[in-house]
Amino acid sequence: MMFKKYHCKSILLISILVFLFCFTSANAFMKGQKKYHELTETDCFRVPEVHKIFKQVLAAADTSSNRIPKLILTKDDIDPWVFCLKNGEVIISRKAIDACYQDVDQSVGDARISLLIGHELSHLAKDDFWEQSAFAFSSQETSGAMSDLFEDVMKNKELKADEYGFFYSSIAGFDVQLVLDYQGESFFQHWERYMMQDMSVPSKGDHPSADERTQRLDQKLIQFQEDLNLFYNGISLYQVGKFSSARTFLNAFKEEYSGRAVFNALGLIEYELAMDHLRKSDPQKADQFMLSTIVDTRTRAENLRKTFATRTKQSDDHAFKEHIEHAIDHFKMAKKKDPFYVPARINLSSALILAEYYNEAITVLEEALSITHKTNVIQPLLTAQIYNNLSIARYKDGLQIDVDLSKKAMGYLSQSIESYQKLPASYYNLAVLSEINHLDAHGFFQTFLQFESTGNYAQIAENTLGIRHTTQQRCPLDVIGESPIPLKPFMDAETDNLITKLGLRHKPNKIDGHVIDTYTNDKMKILCINRVVQLVDCVFEFSNYFSEIKMQLPRPCRVLEMLADIKVFVYEGFALKVHDNHVLRVIYFTL
């Protein structure tokens, strides 16, 4: 009975505090608008680097629809040194920056500041404000009664923000292990010691201790690495066309970290499966225009998977509709996870165009353009992709009402080229629309081939221009070399010995009863499923330019275009990662 009374009083007290929070939130928000004295590069030479790191971590993090995160660096003596506000501002003081970089290499300092940023972005994404506000508005008597109820909740939220900050930092490319252990001390212990030197900063009873935070992340590190391997292995399998296995890995990862990246990747898998079926049931619709996606499914993938002769046009049409609807659902979820994540909107618009939801695609793309106008962190490539898809959506929408919008579509493509001159799709689509309008398309096809000289669309452009290749093709393995680990039907003693000699780190896992073994070092990754080597990803040891290598190889089965201006050319049994005409890595995989 006493417990029930206490429980009821607690609920009433919480309700009153939440009411007070809602009633005074406007006033609190205005307090959040305090003007801070800006920390400039003149004051601290690390300012540009911190802004750069913020953009990197922001690109990896989830965000809330209520706000656009913005970094404010201040030279004011503030308490705490790092915090975030409801309007999306992440405030970092000079003292916080100094604490991160004191007496350490830049890579260590970068990892530390990236964790701080990721921690605050996690609070913003999860709207972790009402508890803090409730405490801020409570009286001394009330706060004493409530502290027992909320202290554990707030500490857990801080620890969870550490975990997500750790995750965002790692996805953004920082060495998060340096945060947990640098010369025998964790960053949290260093931070606490550094703060103790500043007597103006009181200890926070509602924050976990340095040892508690370190211990929590130490415990999570092994599981986190396993989870992260699920994501990276899923992406690798997706890149080489092993969609079923990729989906299994990504779904397992989603159970722990259901962020925008995993939903976006799952959407791309469904999109590619839909495109495969569309090319069988309606090849004209599939290949008429080049739609922009983060991973461009512009070439055929039939050679990578078994097909069944019993399939019919009707069954492929049904399968296309099923997969494209699943893709739309996943892209919408990625957009919901982060409303300012432009790549998800671009991918969603491509799926909507294929599904003939042109008006909805136009709305999504116009929203994406609005986002590019609100923030300065959007890459020109993404803006160009938005205009490219907008041109196709407008043109197709006009056809539905018997209105020729080809000239308007060509105008959007011109804007696409103004934004980013190296997007092949813009030139290809200009060529197609020029042909529709009985204009000379040769110049656009020629420019297209300067940027995209291989793949299905390149073959169409070459056929139009009457280009024929006479270069003698060689055996692919003579060009790229053989896999350092044999791709056998099973792992034998020889395979185990080779892996041991290479000094690879072993990371075991289990998914749905399947035994997963990942072996890695700085130059190589080997993925095995149930004692079968599925893929070997390693640094390309030759110095050849891709422009020279590709002439000796058959046409790729797929071409994937990544955000970092990296392309993945997928052939039968291997794939090449290319940047700026240099082959970076080669991936060998089983068919």
TrEMBL record:
Gene3D superfamilies: Tetratricopeptide repeat domain (1.25.40.10)
GO molecular function: metal ion binding; metalloendopeptidase activity
Signal peptide stretch: 1-28
Native source organism of the sequence: Candidatus Magnetoglobus multicellularis str. Araruama
Keywords: Hydrolase, Metal-binding, Metalloprotease, Protease, Signal, Zinc
Record-linked SUPFAM superfamilies: TPR-like
UniProt entry tagged with the keyword Protein biosynthesis: no
InterPro entries named in the record: Peptidase_M48 (IPR001915), TPR-like_helical_dom_sf (IPR011990)
Presence of keyword Lipid metabolism: no
Protein name: TPR repeat-containing protein
Domain spans labelled Peptidase M48: 48-176
A Gene Ontology biological process term: proteolysis
Cofactor: Zn(2+)
